[in-house]
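Input:
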Amino acid sequence: MRINLRKMRDNQAGLIAAVKVAGDLGRRIRDMGIVPGTEIKIQGRAPLYDPVALRVRGATITLRNNEADYIEVEVND
Amino acid sequence: MHATVALAGNPNSGKTTLFNELTGARQHVGNYPGVTVEKKEGIYSSNDFQLHIVDLPGTYSLTAYSLEEVVAREFLVNQRPQVVINIVDASNLDRNLYLAVQFLEMGVPVCIALNMIDVAKKRGIEINARKLSALLGVPVVPTIARTGQGKKELMDSAAKIVQENTKFVPLKISYGDDIDSAMIEMEKEIEAHHLLTDTYPVRWVALKYMENDEQILEKGRQQNPELSARLQEMVKKVSHHLQDTLDTYPEAMIADQRYGYINSILKQGVIYQKYDLNRLYSSDRIDKVLTNRFLGPLIMLAILAGLYQVVFTYSEVPVGWLEGIFGWISAGVSAILPDGLLKSLIVSGIIDGVGGVLGFVPLIMFMFFGIAFLEDSGYLARVAFMLDRVFRIFGLHGSSVMAFIVSGGIAGGCAVPGVMATRTLKSPRERLATLLTVPFMNCGAKLPVFALLIAAFFAKYEAVIMFIITLGAWAGALLVAKLLRVTVIKGAATPFVMELPPYRMPTFKGLAIHTWERTWQYIKKAGTTILGFSVILWAMMTFPALPDSKVAEFEAQRQALLNSAPAAIAGELQNSPQGSELSPQALSLKEQLKRSHYRQAETALRYSVAGRIGTALESVSRWAGFDWRTNIALVGGFAAKEVVVSTLGTAYSLGEVDPAETGALSEALAKDPGWSPLAALGLIVFTMFYSPCFVSVVCISRESGSWKWGAFAIAFNTLLAFGLAVLIYQVGSALGLGVY
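Output:
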């Protein structure tokens, strides 16, 4: 099932399906290793539920919810 | 052999640690031409050779995404270092190789430092460096920057590249059929017309067009607009095709293929991972507490307050020493030199000026040490993570908080280190908005002004008023930041996307070098400018001097006082040694003489340029309830906010009032019919918001890279403050407030 990164629960894992944004933001997201096929896991969210922290390629990457909106993830459950 | 070696790598890859390890204390810190990005250089010496090492800014990529990336790229192209040492974090190999691949695409001579192999080993990651080297076609040397392990081997293999003049051919990766075939066409055109080929490899230019790299597009347009347009047309065609067929963009495709290339290499027996890559480590367990929804903010508050305490409490001691030393020098010089202009220039202009510059040094050192600790340990990134949601509302960034706190977000800070603290912000617009608004915070120098006015008019409500003042500063700063971000610094938010690096214990050496560099930069660069300003301000408050006839008048007055007193009393005053007990009559005579001196000082102040400005402004400042005395004091406050108090003292014929003891002055204000609680409130608000002191202005100009922003801060803040003060005074008067 393909869902938006913003909708993922804490500790939920999945595979990046698409990063649908060009320009600076898209570049920055890809620079961090978030490209289709990458395994990710939601590590947690900031106290005000935004930004979100992901586990990607053994590192922790954070992005704002409105940035996560461009990322689609394939999840099992 | 003498060669230039560039150090490049991701942030948090241990690049700075390696740089410190290689160069020791022999570093030189400056800026890259025209930008505020720091440039560190140093020398590495071994028995056989010396290498000039340049530390490039930490970047994840070589796009034109950030100033750091552009700077790094320009350096590689224009300065052509003989070797680029690319530091990669072995515990994060694939992400770090993304930058390495881009160096290879550029065809620059690369030597890879496989750093933090100890951390990687602990995480169950084994890397075959020899195999990686063979597959990438560049030397790969395992290192541990913290202990210096491997640094000799690394520098030897870098030196070998220089000595053997090894040729590096740009790496060719397949970016998929659509892009590949379009790029072949583009390369032909680029080669035929020599578009940018004197600086960049042909394929690289084509690649950057494909990636929509703004900087290269712009350069191409300048050199050959027709061809540039044609190339962009070709890219557009591929882009449409990719979007129709694969729902992706060329730049996304290119990034995917780079990662694909990296994976294909790592899979050939380069890396062995014992555990799942995304398993949690002790650093992540610490995060479960430190960024916890409830505990996180509480701990953050404690840590920030703690930092603040450390910076401002412990720096008081060395500040005290410095003040003592300068007071002693001042007194010494005063005793040697005869009264007059020279003495006044040296004591009030130069010694006070140098003292003013150096007085900030302990503060800046402590602040940079504290912030470097939080930054290097990884905590600062967590602060940005937790607070971003709040600061984003105002067009700022989570990292802005540090600068606000240091500047006086907890009353009593200082905007000078605050402005310098914005260096931790990597987003240019958010950074500018932050450094323009931090001076609104209540720095330690504004507190004596508030204390004076509160004691005179609101003595009963001291705590409440101080609390409101603190909240008011935050509200004002954040709202103004928002205003700036939708007007003069408008533009979309810079992407927040960032890494939370694993927690690490900072090395003392690293912290010490970092602190010393920043402090020295302040002394060297800001110091000279500040000294100049200090002399100008002194001149403004001294010249033109009272005409001789006026001085003679005051002297005659004092002579008359002496003459009219009984001879015995006058004699007692003149002949008794200093500090001895005087009779009540003599004391009263002494008091009268002192008053005459104070009145002369008042008259002289009013006669000076600053005084004339103050008097001329009275017709305008009346709107806010300020008379000429307040105006002069505020002009003086441009030197440092606490000068408002001492200048007000002179203007009220009380002599120079010590900002720490304002009893007599606050009584004088409370009695003065020209003053009212309303005018006092207006002055409090004005002091909060008007022009930053000139030390801050110099720092704002330095940090923003332009005097334009320094001038903006003076003009905009003063107008804003005046508007608010007028509003308070006029509305208050209309409502009949502020009258006893």
